[in-house]
Amino acid sequence: MTAELHPVLKSVTDRIIARSKATRAEYLARVERYKSREPRRKKLSCANYAHVAAPMTETDKLALALDKVPNIGVVTAYNDMLSAHAPYYRYPEKILDYARHVGATSQVAGGVPAMCDGVTQGKPGMELSLFSRDVIAMGTVIALSHDAFDSALMLGICDKIVPGLVMGALAFGHLPVIFVPSGPMPSGLPNPEKAKIRTAYAKGEVGRDALLAAEMASYHSEGTCTFYGTANSNQMLMEIMGLHVPGAAFVPPRGELRDALTRAAVERAAKASALGEAPAYMADVIDERAIVNGVVGLLATGGSTNHALHLPAMARAAGIILKPEDMNDLSGVVPLLARVYPNGSADVNHFHAAGGIGFVIKELLSAGLLHADVNTIWGPGLAAYGQEPTLRDGQLVWVDAPAESLDLDILRPVTNPFSPEGGLRELRGNLGVAVTKISAVKPEHRVVEGPCAVFDDQDDFLKAFKENRLPEGDFVCVVRFQGPKANGMPELHSLTPSLSAMLDQGRKVALVSDGRMSGASGKVSSAIHLTPEAVDGGPISKLRSGDIVRVDCENGNLSFIGDEAQLMARESAPRPADADGLGRELFAPFRRLVGEAVSGGSVFW
């Protein structure tokens, strides 16, 4: 059952529409210029067309020559470095076979890079992580620029890959675009056990052999890492924003149901093309309502803070301007319905078994906390995403998601949430604007005031921690020159075990940074994405160790406590030398062009 839209959702959506009027109109006008009910290849010259068809079989060439046969372009982020992407190895072959069965053809239009943040955490390569999103967007555009496709399938799952694919695909908003996941790996070592061993290693209580054994038991197979970080938050977003086949997000790899969902995506890509009766153009799917639904889903499930960067960037690719204040206001009315690690002990497989995203969508619709009347790749309305797929006699069918949670420790209804609010908040004060996520932060740790210890590099903090050179008692850790303009805004997840260890000692500790934390970060209060960043002369560049800083996640305040005029009169700390090596020098133009974190940290806007 769908309830009347909540007034705050209506108000936030209306102001996004008003704010985005000019940019959205410009985007839609551009899309309209490229819409066509004829095959895209008919616009090519004979020589252009011959290049498209040259590698095809004779049968596929004949099919392509027919005016009404859609050609599906596939953009793949396959590599076998990412566990989540390794299953894509056979997908192009499967997709072509499925396409032939519905009278269509398919071609791999191109590949995009997909780096693994799990490998580069705390290493120089992480400085390319955020920028890889925009590279992926450009790679997607290059793949589809052949203009020989009537619809497209996106093969990608992990952190920056899905946002990059969305941004690139939106440049082809005149095409139907469907995202095709491959599912999570089986559950391994329980997440709380892994977290304990990481903290013990940070304290020096266990050796590297114990740490490696724990990590190998956690990340052990093909599929998405099972904690609720950015990758799995991506999959939730693609469901709730209507870009998946309903229920596709968290079905395991390599099973009959997964293959059936991939086949359904191909069939839908053929039927929803501009050659079909009811085209599902991406520009119509991703509108202001879909973006608000994405934010609501993020809040209701306790998703990754990285999407405070990615959602504004994805929205802007569709001409929509999303701001932190929008997320903050929505957070105040959207209840937290899920507890998945790092916000709880369960993983995404447990979440899926308890009712999953279908249950969440049904609950939010029943409370008027989602726009029900959106367009999706599956058709009008979001109701279909409150169902889940299953096989009956070998046939794919959809049934209603569970009416009740099967585990109230993992998943709850809107009438009995874990928290009445989503937990992603905006912080403002004389240090600037930042975001924080409090879903996993205990109430007694949400307000921290004390002397700060200032570092220009996360390695300097880690060294000080190991050498016991940090302030005694409560304190605020400040790590600056970590914003997009400084070094590409790497995740600072390596700080989490050490900060958590101090929290476990009974101290109050908070992090303030113009950088970002991993989607897997949890119980430490963190004011991140701070804008203006240090390289722009923001107040964080003027802080000195010993200054008193207040991080108040309850009341949305981030402030230097003292003489503000005297703080602003100080010289900014000198900017560290520009990083090079491991290809970082090639991204110097990106660091010069990139926008502020509050706008998505993109080089495009």
UniProtKB/TrEMBL annotation:
Alphabetical GO biological process terms: D-gluconate metabolic process; Entner-Doudoroff pathway through 6-phosphogluconate
GO molecular function: 4 iron, 4 sulfur cluster binding; metal ion binding; phosphogluconate dehydratase activity
InterPro entries in UniProt: 6-phosphgluc_deHydtase, Dihydro-acid_dehy_C, DiOHA_6PGluconate_deHydtase_CS, ILV_EDD_C, ILV_EDD_N, IlvD/EDD_N
Keyword Iron-sulfur among UniProt keywords: yes
Residues given in the record as [4Fe-4S] cluster binding sites: C158, C225
GO cellular component assignments: cytosol
Bound cofactor: record note: Binds 1 [4Fe-4S] cluster.
Enzyme Commission identifier(s): 4.2.1.12
Occurrences of domain Dihydroxy-acid/6-phosphogluconate dehydratase N-terminal (ranges): 70-383
Keywords attached to this entry: 4Fe-4S, Carbohydrate metabolism, Gluconate utilization, Iron, Iron-sulfur, Lyase, Metal-binding
PROSITE patterns: ILVD_EDD_1
Pathway note: Carbohydrate metabolism; Entner-Doudoroff pathway
Required co-factors: [4Fe-4S] cluster
The reaction(s) this protein catalyses: 6-phospho-D-gluconate = 2-dehydro-3-deoxy-6-phospho-D-gluconate + H2O
Residue ranges occupied by any Dihydroxy-acid/6-phosphogluconate dehydratase C-terminal domain in the UniProt entry: 409-600
UniProt-listed Gene3D superfamilies: IlvD/EDD C-terminal domain-like (3.50.30.80)
Keyword DNA-binding tagged: no
HAMAP family membership: Edd (MF_02094)
Family: Belongs to the IlvD/Edd family.
Role played: Catalyzes the dehydration of 6-phospho-D-gluconate to 2-dehydro-3-deoxy-6-phospho-D-gluconate.
Protein name as it appears in the record: Phosphogluconate dehydratase
Organism: Asticcacaulis excentricus (strain ATCC 15261 / DSM 4724 / KCTC 12464 / NCIMB 9791 / VKM B-1370 / CB 48)
